[in-house]
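User: I'm writing a short methods note and want a consistent example. For Peptidase S1 domain-containing protein, I'll paste the sequence; you return only the structure tokens, no commentary, since I'll be parsing the reply automatically.
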Amino acid sequence: MKTSACISHCLFLIKMKVIILLALATIAYANVEPLDGNTAYGYIQNYAIPLAEKIRQQEEQMMQERIVGGLPSAPGQFPYQAGLLASYQGISGTGICGGSLISSNRVVTAAHCWFDGVNQAWLFNVVLGSNTLFTGGTRLPTSVVATHPSWTPLLVRNDIAVIYLPQSVASSATISPVALPSGPQVNENFAGESAIASGFGLTESQIGGPISSSQVLSHVSLNVITNNICSWSFPLILQDSNICTSGLGGSSTCQGDSGGPLVVNRNGQPILIGVTSFGSALGCTAGLPAAFARVTSYLSFLHQHI
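Assistant:
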């Protein structure tokens, strides 16, 4: 009887442990938020589409501000900046992202703008030479996009993609490719340098908050930090193939800026060093780092598609 009671009691304890572990796993999964929570799942439906509609409505009223803590950009100030208006399979509405023109017919963006692990885009309307997303500039529709072969939405790893434009665009005062790192720059980590991020995304921290009636392209100067420092904010997500900027002072990239450029200036020439990828679940103004795909880690992939 004692042996039988012991076995029953042990089985009961094992069952309880399994139930507790399953409950904890369920809670952990429930607290994962798209992109900001360091997974790309659901970014398109939860952020890209609702934000695009708000921006479209405000552009119809008037133009002027988006990146948190940043400034409106002058026409032609960032001629490599691309805006992306995306259409998705099985979902109504348009989503937004950013990108960078890297040749006359190629744009680099974040892979999660094309496929976030849940939703798949089928068309990008690429906007070049415009400080607004829904009006002006050169607009080129395309469905030819190459995401990195090792793109992993759950962990936001290898978050980079190349968009094939249907035709080449001529360089002008408002449209011009950005240079990729070359020579000694290939081995630099850029830590300690001041870099500029630009995009059409939020200037308010909360997606549910009001969108400013000033909807022009914005930019902000951010300090590049080491991955050792950045890993304190993203201990399980950050890879050597990421590059981070400090969020001190409340300045950062935000929803809608995904896929956009992070550049440093070398002898008057902008050099693309990052592609906007993810930030903190605590929000864009929390003073925490923002993470980008490190361009030097993906040069072979990019050159393969240029």
